[in-house]
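Collaboration report, partner site 2.

Our partner group contributed sequences for two proteins of shared interest, and the home lab folded both. The records are reproduced in the order in which they were received, starting with the first partner submission.
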Amino acid sequence: MTILEEAAQTSITKILIYLCLPLTVAVVFWYMIGFSEDNSICHKNYDDGGKVVCHPACPSRHFCIPGMTECRPWLACQDFQSVHFRVGKLIAKSAVKMVYQAEWKGHTIVLISLANSEYRKDFLHGLDMLTAFQGSQYVTQLLGSCDDSYVTEYHRLGSVKNVNRILQMSQYKELNNIQGRLGLCINYAAIINYFHTSPRGTRVMCDSNYLEKTLSQYLLHDDLSIVANDLDALPKIDRSTGLLIRCGHRQIYGDFPAPEQRWPYNDHNFTDLEMPPYDEKTDIWKIPDVCSFFLDDVPGSDGVRFHLFKIHRQCKEHSPDLRPTAKEVLETYREVHRKLVS
């Protein structure tokens, strides 16, 4: 082969790489976010040897859960009252709502009902938020509602607070490493970033005054991805109008909440009216503690904590304005994860 022929061949190769690389990256990204070529939503079922399971991506006010092959409209009152709908055992209870395991046409689902009429406003706010954020990969799937009740997809693994126990199970052992656990940090930061930049404005996860309570607001899919589930306390802030928030009407204690959430005056007792409002940076303060819980003490966790030290220290700045955005935290997590798998 002559020098000219070699040069021509090299140029052609470079052109092909230049043209094909974006397509390759796009295909890989399409797979990673859980969509197939026919716009189905897919995930790994680790209880079935990691088999990929897909279901259709549904239009607005429709749903499709595992075991279904087609989307159908949200359940309405006539569905709640039909012979196909059965209420099972109580699985959780709070001042606001009762949570039951239920069944509809052989599918296990979750029924949430108002527990106390005094908290109807909070209950309906949670339903409104759940409705508003449908279609997001970060929010549990709503299946319908009737009066003071609604139904959602059932997540058999339960709350995120169970994740360390679940990762000890044999079917999840391939995820019980530093890459998989940092992936949980990425997933959590992505959810916080989504709510801070959502189509419904900047939202703050208020029901998060201690670690276990924070974790209980999220559920685990079969593939160990995380979805937000409890949206009863998701107030909106708006800097353009000066709209800030307070999380509840009671005094908040402890080191887990951000400093601005604690009563700032030592010379007199707490009153709700005097409590200064705050913004979404309270969520940022809590991210390092949640991520540390996910990392646990698996091999490599100390090294990852070292690489995250700077961003986590910034998250813990006393002044909210000095803390990073959720997007900046997310980008740092992703960069550290890329280095781990490269």
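Second partner submission, folded after the first:
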Amino acid sequence: MRDTIVKINERKFRFLAGIVLIIFLVLMVRLWVLQIIQGASIYTVKSKQNQTRTIKINAPRGLFYDRKGEIMVTSRISHNVSVVPEDMKNNPEILSQLSKILNLSEAEIREKLKPNPQRRANPYDYAPIYQDIDPETTIKLYESKLDLPGVEVDEVPVRSYQNGEFASHLFGYIREINVQELEQMTQKGYQYRLGDLIGKTGLERTYEDILRGSDGGKVYEVDIRGRPLRLLENREPVPGNNLHLTIDHQLQLAAEKALEEQLLHIQKNTRYKNAKSGAVVALDPRNGNILAMVSKPAFDPNLFVGVIPPEVADKLYNNPLHPFMNRVIQGEFAPGSTFKPVTVFSALMENQVDENEKFQCLGLDPVWKRRFPCWIYGEQGKNHGWQNIVDGLKNSCNIVMAELCRKTGPEVLAKYSRYFGFGRPTGINLYPGERLGLVADPDWKMKNTKEKEWYPLETLHFGIGQGYLTVTPLQLAQLYAAIANNGKVYRPQLVTKITSPSGDTLKKFQPKLTAELKASRDVYSILQQGLSEVVSGGTAAWVFNGFPLDKFPVAGKTGTVQKPPYDNSGVFACYAPTNKPEIVVIVLIEQGGSGSGGAAPVARKILESYFNLNKKLERTTTTEKTNKPIKRIEDKREAKPEDSPVSENSNREVKTEEPKKKLEEQPAPETPILEQSEIQEKVEEAADKSESESAFDPVQPENTVSAGE
């Protein structure tokens, strides 16, 4: 019995010993593979990483040219600081010394060197920690180079926006890519690394893949302290491709200057102290080329090249005027009387009126009386008498428009509003995208408001460009381009071609006809005649007194937009020459008074620049040569004659009405998402604020007075 038990135990022991031996042999084989077979390659790679340093050479971004070939945006050399993360980890004294030179805490530097998948894979590659250091700091780093192994001062090409805020919403800005953007770009097949610069807004973002070049690099052999011994590899960077824009540099300058001067003038010399923002867009109706695009207030994209001082960042991101918002494509506002051509067009297309039919303006609407007066009655206690539809446009008569609205109705007005592109994208290719505005009708109100019912007075408000109607300045430009062009509408475009760094043409962008708004030539002729008479003898005549209308005839329309509790805002839309239109100009002055007193003078200056009239016209202005008021009829509550720097010999026959109806805000369409980086989140926040605070959100009219010059 005892022998049997001993034999069983021996067998168990031998079995267990065999298992242990097998495990030991497996471990030994595995250790041999790791050390002998794979070890050589692993440690060779580690050794090479420790003996070499790779310095990336950033490629210059492509240039921006205006339509005449003048460079608008270029690059300059920036001195950036890069370090080897692994060296910083093993050399705390270097980290301490670098912290003092850069005036950064050690914690801030460590945060910039935080591990990520890229750095884990290449721990000995240089990583950027500070951009665009000043010359004094650059000298200190060069002087301390021997004591700072693993620290490099790189010469990196960065954007140079030569005129600061000039066309900032058009150009956009660039900034370091963030983690979310890196993931998105990697998924799309693009090769970016943390620290790379990427377009954030505007053309810089829209054409990022075109403007970005191919980075180069240098590989050095280094000693044990990380000091370069010899150059092993040198790959030259390839610059990005260039954009040739439709923008006219000189016209853009003129538009920026005219708008800025007018805003300052209105603030200083009128009661409209909140006139601090506005927009201008000029385009060629023959092809859709945008000649100028201005949005104020603006920002300086050069600020984003280096480190933004906290006080500057705070001023930008918390500015209630939202300087990051491109009002040309994102500002939604009621067009006021600049919409009246659509009202006339609707009645003509539905055969509800002809050019000879006359309407009597007694100052008050025959149905709504004082709840819907003509502007001339509200300001001067007068009326326009008998008028046809051309007179109605010329004098901006609300009573004529009211009669046309009764003949057509809100559904027809909405149909032709959409016919001209309101409520729809224009198709412009510019990040972060355009807003659509709002075109409402009874069905829309039923579905989207608590009140549900559409009131007859709301139709009249619709017909004079108020109420449930908002547009962007670019959409309004499309309307006037269509009128000037007898119904042909081209997609707005900003780029004519893309060229290589050597100048070879890679791609051309041809004008694209997006719509032909069918109507008899007589219909467009009536609109064109009415708009021409606005400038030659109507509500804008005093502004263009002294302008050579015989050589360069102008057609246009004034508009006054109201949205209590904000001050009135002025809009002016025009095109010229009327016999062969070359340019459409839209001017918007937020909280700046009337269309004639606030916006039209800016348009005149832009036209003077376009037709090279600045040296040919000698105009005495209230701001330059005299403080005498221009003698013209003007309501004391509106912009005074001296409110705009135009000819002192100007005489105005008519006046912008005083809007009186009370408006109630409705939610604006959803804001396009911009970015998810820290900076861009603040830009988004600023844009979100603009939806609720801007004077140009969708509004709801009550049964009160509405008017507009």
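Feedback sent to the partner group on the second submission included the following. The longest helix spans residues 2-51. The CA atoms of residues 423 and 555 lie 25 Å apart.
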